[in-house]
Design goal:
The complex is a heterodimer. Chain A has one domain. The termini of chain A are far apart. Chain A is mainly α. Chain B is mostly helical. Chain B has 2 domains: about 70 residues, Orthogonal Bundle (Rna Polymerase Sigma Factor, Chain: A); about 100 residues, Winged helix-like DNA-binding domain superfamily/Winged helix DNA-binding domain (Arc Repressor Mutant, subunit A, Orthogonal Bundle), CATH 1.10.10.10. In chain B, about 60% of the residues lie in helices and about 0% in strands. Chain B contains 8 helices and no strands. In chain B, about 30% of the residues are buried. Classes of the chains: A mainly alpha, B mainly alpha.
Chain lengths: ~70, ~190
């Protein structure tokens, strides 16, 4: 029998995976499920954008191109 | 255009170094020590540095080592996030989900990240939000994000299990996002 639920994630699960991905590699099964969820959902891509913005912000903060060198 | 003396350059960089050391260590006395030791190391070889940015990069590299040493020295005093905090319930509930797992309120749109990161004030708010994290949580988060230690290294330094580390990092990230939602993106989460 085809188990569709295998690749189904709720928004809550998708949000958890999106955050977890910042610190560890996800199982391939979860990677696939997350991609599928993102294609179908409107809310979760916004949440993902928050996480990715944070990631980029921390990268820039770490290298401090923004805070100090932006001073005149 | 004036050229700063080596001393003036060090004084100038000190402010910057202190900011990172304080955020990471959450202890002003330790931060002072780490920064002073870093400046002393630089003073022992002033001829090594060609230009300002080389000096800064070198100072930050040394500071990170000094900070890690300090964290090691004070392992017992450095509180790790208590596991009792794990009983607070599911951190994701801060985001408010319906029982069927859907968002109660859709997440705020943060717009174009590129545009956000152009703004210096954004980073001031980010700094303030990091300061607001509980000390143990902030320390752990910055061990990953600033010291760039691997998960295994952070676990080792703080005697945490990987699961506990991931829970804590997860919590720190969500709190920062929540803080930015309120104080930068202007959308209060319900």
């Amino acid at each position: 029998m085809l188990k569709l639920t295998l690749l189904r994630r709720t928004c809550k699960q998708a949000a958890a995976l999106t955050i977890a991905r910042e610190d560890r590699a996800l199982k391939l099964n979860d990677v696939v499920a997350l991609k599928l969820h993102m294609m179908a959902c409107k809310a979760c891509p916004e949440f993902e954008n928050q996480v990715l913005t944070m990631r980029a912000a921390m990268g820039k903060w770490r290298n401090d191109s923004a805070v100090e060198d932006a001073k005149p | 255009m004036t050229t700063l003396t080596f001393e003036e350059q060090l004084v100038e960089h000190r402010v910057y170094l202190m900011r990172f050391a304080r955020l990471q260590l959450r202890n002003d006395a330790w931060a002072e020590d780490a920064v002073s030791e870093t400046l002393l190391a630089a003073l022992s070889k002033p001829q090594t540095f060609g230009n300002r940015s080389q000096l800064k990069t070198w100072l930050v590299g040394i500071l990170k080592h000094k900070v890690i040493d300090l964290i090691r020295c004070h392992t017992r005093e450095v509180s790790t996030p208590d596991s009792e905090a794990d009983n607070e319930g599911d951190e994701l509930d801060r985001l408010a989900f319906k029982t069927d797992g859907h968002f109660l309120e859709p997440p705020a749109s943060w717009g174009d990240p590129h545009q956000t990161l152009q703004q210096r004030q954004f980073f001031e708010v980010l700094d303030a939000c990091m300061e607001r994290l509980p000390p143990a949580l902030g320390r752990l988060f910055l061990m990953r994000e600033w010291l760039e230690l691997s998960s295994q290294e952070v676990c080792k330094e703080l005697s945490l299990t990987p699961t506990n580390l991931y829970v804590q990092l997860h919590r720190a990230r969500l709190r920062l996002q929540e803080c930015l939602n309120i104080h930068w993106f202007g959308q209060r989460t319900p």
